[in-house]
């Protein structure tokens, strides 16, 4: 049995139909004999919509209140996903970033994870349930909600995978992995089956938007394998693995 952390981005949970499809995929992974923890982003353009609403009221809103507002999007998607998993026949618990144990510094809007203490997530997994954590957010020492900045949910997923001792962290998006160019712009772009951390860091620092730079850095530091794949297909995506690890040995490649 493997412990798998799956992260689903905004395009994968854009509406209730998408959330239902994602729930089915999670249930399939669980019924295949795996323990599954999930990190989820806000639905579609929810975060941008919340920012627009705040800016329409005040062009210079307080940073603390913006972070409090920003955490609302993931709360919606995580609870709807838990409901969808329940409807599909399994039990799931959803947790905010603070409930999931993401402890950060006090830099609102661009907080860094200082530690992850996922006691409640672990308890849910030990009960045989799916655990769902809100990505992109945490809590500082003062008890205030914080957000991690753009791409923060990717980093949340890698950090949770490390804290749980997961076998792999799967990053689900709307493309089938990492390509030599954006396949939505360059139809002849080729998928990269596997890649090392250093090459992935270079691609991320040069503007590749598939995977957040901090996520790759976190995974590299703790040798956590990543699998970037599409939530719209079951094809194998791109595996980012430490030296000496056979990509074929990793779980849930189907």
UniProtKB/TrEMBL annotation:
<dbReference type="GO" id="GO:0005829">
    <property type="term" value="C:cytosol"/>
</dbReference>
<dbReference type="GO" id="GO:0009088">
    <property type="term" value="P:threonine biosynthetic process"/>
</dbReference>
<dbReference type="GO" id="GO:0005524">
    <property type="term" value="F:ATP binding"/>
</dbReference>
<keyword id="KW-0220">Diaminopimelate biosynthesis</keyword>
<dbReference type="InterPro" id="IPR001341">
    <property type="entry name" value="Asp_kinase"/>
</dbReference>
<comment type="similarity">
    <text>Belongs to the aspartokinase family.</text>
</comment>
<keyword id="KW-0028">Amino-acid biosynthesis</keyword>
<feature type="domain" description="Aspartate/glutamate/uridylate kinase">
    <location>
        <begin position="3"/>
        <end position="230"/>
    </location>
</feature>
<keyword id="KW-0418">Kinase</keyword>
<dbReference type="InterPro" id="IPR018042">
    <property type="entry name" value="Aspartate_kinase_CS"/>
</dbReference>
<comment type="pathway">
    <text>Amino-acid biosynthesis; L-lysine biosynthesis via DAP pathway; (S)-tetrahydrodipicolinate from L-aspartate: step 1/4.</text>
</comment>
<dbReference type="GO" id="GO:0019877">
    <property type="term" value="P:diaminopimelate biosynthetic process"/>
</dbReference>
<keyword id="KW-0808">Transferase</keyword>
<dbReference type="Pfam" id="PF00696">
    <property type="entry name" value="AA_kinase"/>
</dbReference>
<keyword id="KW-0457">Lysine biosynthesis</keyword>
<dbReference type="GO" id="GO:0009090">
    <property type="term" value="P:homoserine biosynthetic process"/>
</dbReference>
<keyword id="KW-0547">Nucleotide-binding</keyword>
<dbReference type="InterPro" id="IPR036393">
    <property type="entry name" value="AceGlu_kinase-like_sf"/>
</dbReference>
<protein>
    <recommendedName>
        <fullName>Aspartokinase</fullName>
        <ecNumber>2.7.2.4</ecNumber>
    </recommendedName>
</protein>
<comment type="pathway">
    <text>Amino-acid biosynthesis; L-threonine biosynthesis; L-threonine from L-aspartate: step 1/5.</text>
</comment>
<dbReference type="InterPro" id="IPR001048">
    <property type="entry name" value="Asp/Glu/Uridylate_kinase"/>
</dbReference>
<keyword id="KW-0067">ATP-binding</keyword>
<dbReference type="InterPro" id="IPR041740">
    <property type="entry name" value="AKii-LysC-BS"/>
</dbReference>
<dbReference type="GO" id="GO:0004072">
    <property type="term" value="F:aspartate kinase activity"/>
</dbReference>
<comment type="function">
    <text>Catalyzes the phosphorylation of the beta-carboxyl group of aspartic acid with ATP to yield 4-phospho-L-aspartate, which is involved in the branched biosynthetic pathway leading to the biosynthesis of amino acids lysine, threonine, isoleucine and methionine.</text>
</comment>
<dbReference type="GO" id="GO:0009089">
    <property type="term" value="P:lysine biosynthetic process via diaminopimelate"/>
</dbReference>
């Amino acid at each position: 049995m493997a412990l798998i952390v799956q992260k689903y981005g905004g395009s994968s949970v854009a509406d209730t139909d998408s959330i239902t499809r994602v729930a089915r995929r999670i249930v399939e992974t669980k019924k295949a004999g795996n323990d599954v923890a999930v990190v989820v982003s806000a639905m579609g353009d929810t975060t941008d919509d919340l920012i627009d609403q705040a800016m329409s009221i005040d062009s210079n809103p307080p940073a603390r209140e913006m972070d409090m507002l920003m955490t609302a999007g993931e709360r919606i998607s995580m609870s709807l996903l838990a409901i969808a998993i329940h409807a599909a026949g399994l039990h799931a618990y959803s947790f905010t970033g603070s409930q999931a144990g993401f402890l950060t510094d006090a830099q609102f809007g661009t907080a860094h994870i200082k530690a992850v203490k996922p006691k409640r997530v672990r308890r849910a997994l030990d009960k045989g349930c799916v655990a769902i954590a809100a990505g992109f957010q945490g809590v500082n020492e003062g008890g205030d909600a914080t957000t991690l900045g753009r791409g923060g949910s990717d980093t949340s997923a890698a950090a949770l995978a490390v804290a749980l001792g997961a076998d792999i962290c799967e990053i689900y998006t709307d493309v089938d992995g990492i390509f030599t160019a954006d396949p939505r712009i360059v139809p002849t772009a080729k998928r990269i089956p596997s890649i090392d951390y250093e090459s992935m860091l270079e691609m991320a620092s040069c503007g590749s938007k598939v995977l957040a730079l901090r996520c790759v850095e976190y995974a590299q530091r703790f040798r956590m394998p990543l699998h970037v794949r599409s939530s719209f297909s079951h094809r194998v995506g791109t595996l980012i693995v430490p030296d000496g690890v056979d990509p074929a040995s990793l779980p849930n490649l189907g």
